[in-house]
Amino acid sequence: MARDILEPVKETSDTSSDDSILQKQQEFALELQQERPVIEGALKNYISCLEANSFTGSGPSSSSKTLLTCAKITLKAMNSLDLPSSVEWGHKYPQETDESGSDYMERLARYKVVQNLWQQCRRSEGTRVAKCLGKTTLKIAMGEVEKAVHDYFESNTSDVSSEQLGQFLDGFMETVDNCAEGSDGELVWSVRWQDCLAKRQAARKVEAQERSDRAASAEDYADQLRSALTSTTAVVEELPSDA
Q1: Residue 84 CB burial class (10 angstroms; 0-12, 13-18, ≥19)
Q2: Which residues contact 205 (CB under 8 A, 6 or more apart)?
Q3: pLDDT, position 160
Q4: What whole-number distance in Å separates Cα of residue 20 and Cα of residue 11?
């Protein structure tokens, strides 16, 4: 399927180079298609994360209705978005000051694969982008997705405020860039949510036990210090005044 929709990034008279470029694009396309969880699944994980953080007091409080509304707006905007061509995208996101020419061409090539797959999902009846593609796709198309979500919000009535949607969207996009161990991103983009959650809970129990042990050790030390000071005071008081 990938070979039917992908073309070399640039024309070249070198057939072997042409085939090499196409092969890399096909491999990347396959990687994107196989990536899990898909964006819609990650959004569901994200909502669960926010609700858990709200319950424990470790995050801002938002109602389930607000979170679901924000997620629906995000999905509707994303699934109805047509990504610009690689040429247009290249003009919108030009080569950065510290980016080499080869790195810039690689970034364009990767976007072209994403754009082709994205549009294929848009053209296929009953297929939605958020149900087919995952984190890497979202990371590459992030700027376009964020703009589409805000544009959709401005063009449609909603039960949430722009601030609520912005906070929801910003938080979700942050998980794309940060999936480090112990972060919300690790949970949001985990294929095995329950296993990841259990691992995190176990780590927190160990951490809590270590804090408790440190506190107990500190208290024992304080008791020993108080006892030593009391003994020293008693000895001093027993000394004759002309000693």
Answers
A1: middle
A2: none
A3: 93
A4: 12
pTM: predicted TM-score of the whole model, two decimal places = 0.73
Q: What angle do CA 96, 140, 168 make, to 5 degrees?
A: 110
User: Checking phi first, is residue 126 left (phi over 0); if not, alpha (psi -120 to 50) or beta?
Assistant: left
The reported pLDDT for the residue numbered 155 is 93
DSSP conformational letter for 160? S
CA distance 76 to 145: 11
* Eight-state DSSP code of residue 127: -
Confidence of residue 5 (pLDDT cuts 50, 70, 90): very low
Q: Report CA-CA distances (Å) from 25 to 5, 34, 110, 194.
A: 10, 14, 7, 34
Residue 124: both structure tokens together: 């296929």
- What confidence tens digit (pLDDT) does each residue in 88-128 have? 999 999 999 999 999 999 999 999 999 999 999 999 888 89
Element (H, E) at 203: helix 193-238
Residue ranges of the alpha helices (H) in 80-100? 86-92
- Per DSSP, helices labelled H in 124-192 are 129-132, 135-140, 142-155, 162-177, 184-188
Structure tokens at 190: 């985990």
